[in-house]
Write a structure and sequence with these properties.
The complex is a heterodimer of chains A (317) and B (186).
Chain A (H helix, E strand, L loop, with lengths): L1 H8 L5 H31 L1 H16 L6 H8 L4 H9 L6 E4 L7 E9 L4 E8 L6 E2 L5 H9 L10 H8 L4 H5 L4 H13 L2 H14 L1 E11 L4 E2 L2 E2 H5 L7 E7 L2 E7 L10 E18 L4 E18 L1 H6 L1
Antiparallel strand pairs in A: 1-2, 2-3, 3-9, 4-5, 5-10, 6-7, 6-10, 8-9, 10-11
Chain B lengths: L2 H9 L4 H22 L2 H18 L8 H21 L5 H11 L15 H14 L2 H11 L5 H7 L4 H21 L5
Helix pairs in contact in B: 1-2, 2-3, 2-4, 3-4, 7-9, 8-9
The chains are: A alpha+beta (317), B mainly alpha (186).
C-alpha cells in the first residue's frame, strides 16, 4: 500500500514538530479558558455596558468602521470570492439575537447570513453566561471510571520550566508537593481558570483528600445542522473529500460554512437552518500523587431555527 | 526522573532504566499504541516490547528527546503488530487512515514504491510541516503520527469536529501538491 510508505516516513518527522502536538493543545486550553473567563466577567459585571458596546459595534460594522465576520474572511481568503459576495449581500442585515433560556442568560447572535442556492454562510457569536466552576465536586465510581477511561489530558504533561513560561511562578503548593507532568499541566490550567478564592479552596481539598474534582461548563454549536430538516452531515456521507461543513474563526466572530448542501436545500427561494447549541460539563480530576484526568459530559441543548432568503431572489427582482 | 538521568541508567545497563521509563512514559506509550491497535492486549505487549527495544538500542544510540524516540519505536512495533493482525482480519480504523493518505500521493498509476526511501519522503514531509501553521502541524501529526480519532483531536484542541475534518482535508490537499512540487513519487 503506497500510503503505508507515507506512514513510514512519519518516523522521520522532526522532534520540534512532535513537540507542537502537546504545546499547541496546552496553548488552546489556555486561550479557551482565558477567553471564557474574561467574557463571563464582562457580561456579569457590566451587562448593560456590554449591550451598549454591542449596539455601537453593530453600528460600526454597518457604517464600515470595523470589518465584519465576512469582511475579515474576504481579506484572509481573497481568492475565495464567496466571502466578498456574502459581504456585499449582507450589508443591510440587522443582527438577530436568539435567547438561550436553557443556558442561563446566554445568547446566540447571528450577525450576518448568506444563502445563494448552493452555499450557506452564517456569521455568529455565542455570548456565554455560564455558572462559576464547582470546586470539590463529589465523584462517584461511574464518573471515576469515565475519567480514567476517556482521559482527554494531553500526553506527557509539562515540566516546571514550561509551567513557569505559561502560568507564572511555580506556586509554593506545587513545589511543596513535588507536582509533575500531567498534574502540573492541569494545576496550571485550573490556576488560570479559577478565582483566587476558588483556587485556594481547590488546594485545601487536594491536600486534605489527596484529590479534587473541578467542574466547568462549555457552550458550542453541535455538528448536526439541519437544512430544511435534513442533516448536512448525512449529505456528506460517502464523500470524504467534501469540505461540507466548517467553522471559520475571526476576531469578529465565527462563520459557519455549509457546502455542499443536501438536495432539499439547493436552489430554494428560502430555506430553514436549524442549529443545535449545546452546553457540556468539563470534569477536571487532579490527584496529589501526580495523576490528572479530564473528561466531559453533555448537559443541555437548544435548537436555534433560522430562515434565510436566497440572495438570487433579490438580484433577480 | 529527568530524561537525561534515565538515559544515563540505560548507558550504565541498570534495569532501573526500564522501570523509570515505564513510570514516566508507560501511559503515553500505551495511548500511542492503543490509537493504532485498538486492542488492550496487543497494546500491552507492544509497550512491553518497546522497553526491550529501547534497552537494546541505548547504547549506542543517545536519543535527543527520549519521549519521541520511544514513541517512534512504539509506532513501528504497533504497525508490525497490525500487519500481523491484518493478515488474519482487517483493522477498519487503520484502513480509513491509509485511505485518507492515499489521496496525497501524486501518481496513482506509477508503481514505483521502491524508488524513494521513507527517509527521503520524511525530509520532504518536514519541509511541508515547516510551511504550515503550528496548530495545523499539531492537528496533522495528531491524526497521522499519533493516529488519534477526529473526535479526540476535536476535544484536544477545543475545535468542532467539522473544523478538524475541514483542516485535515485542506492539509491533505496541500501535502499532495507539496509532494507533487518536490517530485515525490510513491
Amino acid at each position: 500500500m503506497r500510503s503505508k510508505k507515507l506512514f513510514d516516513a512519519m518516523e522521520y518527522v522532526d522532534d520540534r514538530f512532535l513537540d507542537l502536538v502537546d504545546s499547541q493543545a496546552r496553548q488552546t486550553n489556555q486561550e479557551g479558558t482565558g477567553s471564557i473567563r474574561s467574557l463571563r466577567r464582562a457580561i456579569v459585571v457590566a451587562l448593560a455596558a456590554a449591550i451598549c458596546v454591542s449596539l455601537l459595534a453593530v453600528t460600526a460594522v454597518a457604517a464600515g468602521w470595523v470589518p465584519s465576520i465576512f469582511g475579515l474572511l474576504k481579506e484572509q481568503f481573497p481568492q475565495e470570492t464567496i466571502y466578498a459576495q456574502a459581504e456585499q449581500a449582507s450589508q443591510t442585515q440587522i443582527p438577530e439575537v436568539v435567547e438561550l433560556p436553557k443556558m442561563d442568560a446566554s445568547k446566540f447572535v447571528l450577525s450576518q447570513s448568506y444563502y445563494d442556492g448552493e452555499t450557506i454562510l452564517l456569521g455568529y457569536n455565542l455570548e456565554e453566561v455560564l455558572p462559576e466552576p464547582v470546586v470539590g465536586y463529589q465523584v462517584d465510581e461511574a464518573l471515576l471510571r469515565q475519567l480514567k477511561g476517556t482521559n482527554l489530558m494531553p500526553f506527557g504533561g509539562i515540566d516546571r520550566k514550561t509551567y513557569e513560561a505559561q502560568y507564572g511562578t511555580l506556586p509554593e503548593y506545587v513545589q511543596e508537593h513535588s507536582m509533575k507532568r500531567d498534574a502540573l499541566a492541569m494545576e496550571g490550567e485550573l490556576r488560570k481558570m479559577l478565582s483566587p478564592e476558588a483556587y485556594e479552596k481547590m488546594w485545601q481539598l487536594l491536600v486534605q483528600n489527596g484529590y479534587v474534582c473541578v467542574v466547568t461548563q462549555d457552550l458550542y454549536v453541535g455538528d448536526h445542522i439541519l437544512v430544511n430538516g435534513v442533516d448536512t452531515i448525512t449529505a456528506m456521507t460517502g464523500n470524504p473529500d467534501a469540505i461540507g461543513i466548517a467553522d471559520m474563526y475571526t476576531e469578529a466572530g465565527t462563520c459557519l460554512y455549509l457546502n455542499p448542501l443536501p438536495d432539499v436545500g439547493k436552489n430554494q427561494s428560502s430555506i430553514t437552518v436549524e442549529l443545535k447549541v449545546k452546553s457540556s460539563y468539563q470534569y477536571w480530576y487532579l490527584e496529589l500523587d501526580g495523576h490528572a484526568y479530564q473528561t466531559y459530559a453533555p448537559n443541555q441543548e437548544q435548537i436555534v431555527s433560522l430562515t434565510l432568503d436566497n440572495v438570487q431572489n433579490a438580484s433577480s427582482k | 526522573m529527568e530524561d537525561t538521568e534515565i538515559v544515563r541508567l540505560y548507558f550504565q545497563r541498570s534495569e532501573e532504566a526500564i522501570a523509570q521509563t515505564q513510570k514516566k512514559y508507560g501511559h503515553y506509550l500505551s495511548q500511542v499504541a492503543y490509537n493504532i491497535l485498538h486492542c488492550q492486549e496487543d497494546t500491552e505487549e507492544v509497550v512491553g516490547d518497546t522497553y526491550w527495544a529501547a534497552w537494546n538500542a541505548i547504547p549506542p544510540t543517545k536519543p535527543n528527546v527520549l519521549k519521541h524516540f520511544l514513541s517512534r519505536i512504539t509506532r513501528n512495533l504497533s504497525y508490525d503488530r497490525m500487519d500481523y493482525n491484518t493478515a488474519k482480519r482487517r483493522n477498519p480504523h487503520m484502513t480509513v487512515l491509509f485511505s485518507e493518505l492515499d489521496e496525497c500521493l501524486p501518481d496513482r498509476r506509477n508503481n514505483t514504491e521502491k524508488l524513494w526511501e521513507a527517509k527521503q519522503i520524511g525530509v520532504s514531509l518536514n519541509r511541508f510541516l515547516g510551511s504550515v501553521t503550528a496548530e495545523d502541524c499539531a492537528i496533522f501529526l495528531s491524526r497521522y503520527y499519533y493516529a488519534m480519532s477526529v473526535p479526540d483531536i476535536s476535544q484536544r484542541y477545543h475545535l468542532p469536529q467539522r473544523k478538524v475534518k475541514y483542516r485535515l482535508s485542506r492539509l491533505r490537499q496541500q501535502l499532495r501538491s507539496h509532494l507533487q512540487q518536490e517530485g515525490v513519487v510513491l
